[in-house]
Amino acid sequence: MSSTLARTISLAALLALAVPAGAHAFDRDQWRGSTSDDGGWRLDCDAPACVPGSLVTFTVKPPHAVADLATYEATLAHPAPEFARRGITVATGPVRRSVIGRFVLYRATRTLTLPDGRRQIGPMGVLVGDDLSLSLFSLSPDPAAAERNFTGVATWLARHPPKPGGQR
């Protein structure tokens, strides 16, 4: 079985699990999932509850991918060079730390100002665990929806983490 097919099947299994109570706006039936060759997972939603055009991406990382709040802040201080090459200005708000189950969540809100002046605002963060970590980013035409979607997916992933390597 190809690795792309295996990731797609794993994503289907991940999305097929029951959504826990209190998982905010995340309703698996409203989201479509796909994976990329680099191991990233993308969830798209066009339902009114999550605001049409919303997306959340996440990537499985090694355990303890971030040691502490200061380490994550330092990581965010150096946005990907691709942003500058594309004329995108990046501003990142303060990092907050919280705990969801066995995971520590470091999150911040990032504002991307595109060359045409449009702004995209969305939360980003990393769930840090003993078995794996998950890097997440959420965008939506509505910044409040991006926050709700991020919180819902992060909470759901913390309660139902994929196994290391992205397998369920």
Structure, described:
- Strands 1, 2, 3, 4, 5, 6, 7 and 8 form an eight-stranded antiparallel sheet that branches.
- The longest helix has 17 residues, at 143-159.
- The model is unreliable at 1-25 (pLDDT under 50).
- This protein has a single domain, classed as Protein Transport Mog1p, Chain A (3-Layer(aba) Sandwich).
- Strand 5 and strand 6 (103-113) form a beta hairpin.
- It contains four helices and eight strands; from the N terminus they run αβββααβββββα.
- It is globular and about 40 Å long.
- With 168 residues, the chain is of the alpha+beta class.
- It is 26% helix and 33% strand.
- It has helices at 3-16, 69-76, 81-85, 143-159, and strands at residues 31-35, 40-45, 54-61, 89-92, 96-100, 103-113, 119-128, 133-139.
